[in-house]
Design goal:
Order of helices and strands: EHEHHEHHEHHEH
Largest sheet: 5 strands, parallel
Radius of gyration: 16 Å
Length: 200
């Protein structure tokens, strides 16, 4: 049996965020594998979550049936449920929780869609803050070309250019690391691991 790392006094919460096709899902999985090889217990999760509200969101964002305000309310509800039922229990068990997207996605996408950032932040005031948020950055055209199939209403280059700008502005104001992902997966993952190692 692999010896578990015994120097963790508490769990860590790590978020990878970025536009569609930036590689958050791929790199979250690779990061989990790397941490587990080092002996850490890891919870890999995602937003929208795989719980009931998140499952509903995954269906809704393929349509234009809901308003931007309703989308934001649903994302906030899913996030609070996600925090209470997945993230907090993982941290309480001294695990490293990696989330593929989190609140910065809502800020970037919903404000691009026309919502006031103050209202979006108010909706999400009950969440917990990550120990580390990393923004994966890529040009929208490259990101969309990586996707085998476009399935939701946010996946168009013009919209994503504005989303990307907000991500970069938020990264600057909140001091989030930015990793450019139009490079080899190995190089990106190595850079990502260095940031994660710094908080362990």
């Amino acid at each position: 049996m692999k010896r578990m790392v015994d120097n963790m006094s508490k769990g860590k919460f790590i978020v990878l965020d970025g536009i569609d096709g930036s590689g958050t899902t791929t790199h979250a999985k690779l990061l989990k594998n790397w941490l587990m090889q080092k002996g850490y217990a890891v919870v890999l999760t995602t937003e929208p979550s795989k719980r009931k509200i998140g499952t509903l969101i995954r269906k809704i964002i393929r349509t234009t049936e809901t308003s931007t305000e309703i989308d934001a309310l649903l994302f906030a509800a899913d996030r609070l449920d996600h925090v209470e039922m997945v993230i907090k229990p993982g941290l309480a068990a001294n695990k490293i929780v990696i989330s593929d997207r989190y609140v910065e996605s809502t800020i970037a996408y919903q404000t691009t869609a026309g919502l006031d950032i103050g209202w979006v932040l108010e909706l999400n005031k009950f969440i917990i803050n990550p120990d580390l948020t990393i923004i994966l950055d890529i040009e929208p055209e490259i990101g969309l070309n990586r996707k085998q199939k476009l399935t939701d209403k946010f996946e168009n280059a013009e919209f994503l250019r504005n989303v990307r700008e907000i991500y970069l502005e938020r990264a600057q104001s909140q001091h989030y690391p930015i990793i450019t992902t139009n490079r080899s997966i190995d190089i990106v993952q190595e850079e990502l691991q260095k940031y994660v190692q710094s908080i362990l």
